[in-house]
Amino acid sequence: MEYVIQGRNPEAVFRFFEEISQIPRPSYHEERIADYLVSFAETRGLECVRDALHNVLIKAPADPGLESIPAILFQGHTDMVCEKNADTEHDFLKDPLKLYVDGDRLRAKGTTLGADNGIAVAMMMAMLDGALGPHPAIECLFTTAEEVGLNGAEGFDYRHVTARRMVNLDSEALGWVTAGCAGGIRSDLVLSATTELFSGTALRVSVKGLMGGHSGENINSGRANANKLMGRLLGALLDAMPEIRLIRLTGGSKDNAIPRECEALLALSDPEAASDILEEEAMRIAQELSPCDREFTLTVETDAPEAVMLSAEDTRHAISLMRSAKNGVIAMSEDIKGLVQTSRNLGVITTEDATITFVFSSRSSKECELDACVEDLDTLAAELGCSARHYSRYPGWEFASVSPLREAYLQAYREVTGKDAAVNVIHAGLECGIIRSKLPDMDIISVGPTMHDIHSPDEALELGDTEIFCKTLTRLLEIL
């Protein structure tokens, strides 16, 4: 194949990344990347385990003279968030990503880049191939379905793992060592609406142009949620025109991504008056948005008639849910300055056969506050005639005051860069919490090269930082 990344070292890391970028790997569809990894291991005579979830564990023995050093586990996930711009033609189940170099950054044309967490996959392959220098015994765990609930990590049989120190490669800032993360839970609130025969005029309302981003890392950055903005717009319209009826709601595509777009189809009698009300509210919204959402647009246009519309009561219930559900930062930590303690993201809204599903992702570093999030959504569902389902709960990862592995990485980074790395705890969820719950004596850190705007089509990988990060891993392997 023809590679677009040139002149970067170690070359193997960037070559492997470009190769896996040719392999579609949405969550729950990781079988082809697993095939690729198994073939890689078999070609090199490396021990390999693959399970029914398409998790893959590959082991490489210690290089001569390093046999006495305890084994170390490296870990990352093979699936990626599949987001694209509205005007981009791309089938994430079939099409390769179209990579291009933009200065010192790597991007994909119109889609997410998949550096989260494809760069980890590439680095582990390069490490197993010896491209990062001599190493002790290493074990590389490639997990699946991370982006939809950390399901692969939860289902793996850890009796195959012998190492008791682990480097998770799913962080996105060079110069930072993550040493703790939040737990989380997914929730679906489902409104099974009654319908009536359509009457009036169909009006399509679209919110677009928002920045979006990761619902953990970017939740306190002021980025607007398209689903919540739609709730505000429709709420203003409902207050002025109580007769409006919903036909369909669609917004977002991932519960762990801040939605950038939302669309509503309405039935009403006076589209011109409705358009004026919506545009007036949109002007107020535009004045309040942060600079990162300056591309916000509202489109209002008439559409073809539909067969049915929701009842007046269920229209009110759906709009009330969008307006009143808590979203964004709910609580800040009192122990760690600047750390979001609890948050919620209304990530996805879908409509199918008059059934509207609202998908939430709640996160917290305190289990009791996750329980409170569940209770809050249960109460809201009961008030608005919805059913509630909570699933894919995963534990947080508590900060350890003593970590020899963390100290070794801090030393390696200092020797490579001449600078001190910072240690932090993050609000996003990582597989570290699950792995620590399975192997309580595991010493864990999470690190990675710098990325920007993950979970959005603006995702970018800093190539220079990736080179520095690889040098740091090489030095880490030397001083373990």
Percent range for β-strand residues: 25-35%
Biggest sheet details:
6 strands, mixed
What is the terminal separation in angstroms?
Answer: 36 Å
Structural class, from helix and strand content?
A: alpha+beta
List segments where confidence is low: pLDDT < 50 over at least 5 consecutive residues: none
Report the total helices. 11
CATH level 1 name of the largest domain: Alpha Beta
Q: Portion of residues in helices?
A: 25-40%
Write the CATH architecture name of the largest domain.
3-Layer(aba) Sandwich
Descriptive notes:
With 480 residues, the protein is an alpha+beta fold. It folds into two domains: 11-181 and 397-479, Aminopeptidase; 186-394, Alpha-Beta Plaits, CATH 3.30.70. Helices cover 30% and strands 28% of the residues. The chain has eleven helices and 25 strands. It has helices at residues 11-20, 31-43, 115-128, 151-155, 226-240, 271-288, 312-324, 367-383, 404-417, 432-438, 463-479; strands at residues 47-50, 56-60, 72-77, 99-102, 105-108, 138-143, 165-168, 176-178, 183-192, 195-197, 201-208, 213-214, 245-251, 257-258, 262-268, 297-303, 308-310, 328-332, 340-352, 355-364, 387-394, 422-424, 443-446, 451-452, 460-462. A six-stranded mixed beta sheet has the order 1-2-6-3-7-23. Helix 5 (226-240) packs across helix 6, helix 5 (226-240) crosses helix 7 (312-324) and helix 9 (404-417) crosses helix 11.
